[in-house]
Structure formats: C-alpha cells, structure tokens
C-alpha cells in the first residue's frame, strides 16, 4: 500500500539509521512507562463525582438559553439545579 500513497514513501535504510526514539528526541514531551513506551492521556479526564444519566423535559426557551452560552451548557444546568 505504501507504493500507492505518494505522501507516505517507504523509509530508506539511511533514514532508518538516523532514526531516534521519541523519548530520546523529545524528552520534555515524553513520559516513560515501565515498558519504555510513551504514555499519553486518552479521552476526557475522569470526573471525581459519579453522575447519573437522566431524561429531563425542559421548555424550549429554557434549553435555548443554556445552549446559547456555548459548550458546558449541561454543567450550567447542573449548577442551576444545585443552587435551587
């Protein structure tokens, strides 16, 4: 498949001889694990408080008001309900 993709040519022996590990070439970015692999976070960080999924009916104007504030509208609804 490499031959069919001009944007991803096969590495030459000379290029492979010059190759360095990511952890050696970018130590500030690398976090080593016991296996020597690079560890990076995957997905969203876990919320320390466990939340419960519910179905809730809201008036369209109320929902639009929260959504108009952009991302985080569900968190803002949660905060408003907590205050109430």
What is this entry, summarized?
Residues 1-52 are annotated as: Disordered. With 84 residues, the protein is mainly α.
Rounded Rg: 24 Å
Question: What structural class is derived from the secondary structure elements?
Answer: mainly alpha
| Domains (count) | 1
Number of strands: 0
Unreliable sequence segments: none
Strand content: under 5%
The general outline is elongated
Helix content: 25-40%
Cα distance spanning the termini = 60 Å
Largest sheet: none
Mean of all residue-level pLDDT scores = 83
Order of helices and strands: HHHH
Specify the number of helices: 4
Organism: Nguyenibacter vanlangensis
InterPro entries: BrnA_antitoxin (IPR025528)
Protein name: BrnA antitoxin family protein
């Amino acid at each position: 498949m490499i031959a069919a993709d001009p944007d991803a040519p096969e590495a030459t022996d000379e290029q492979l001889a010059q190759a360095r590990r990511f952890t050696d070439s970018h130590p500030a970015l690398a976090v080593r694990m016991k296996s020597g692999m690079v560890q990076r976070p995957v997905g969203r960080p876990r919320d320390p408080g466990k939340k419960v999924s519910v179905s809730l009916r809201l008036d369209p104007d109320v929902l639009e008001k929260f959504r108009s504030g952009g991302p985080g509208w569900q968190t803002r609804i949660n905060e408003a309900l907590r205050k109430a």
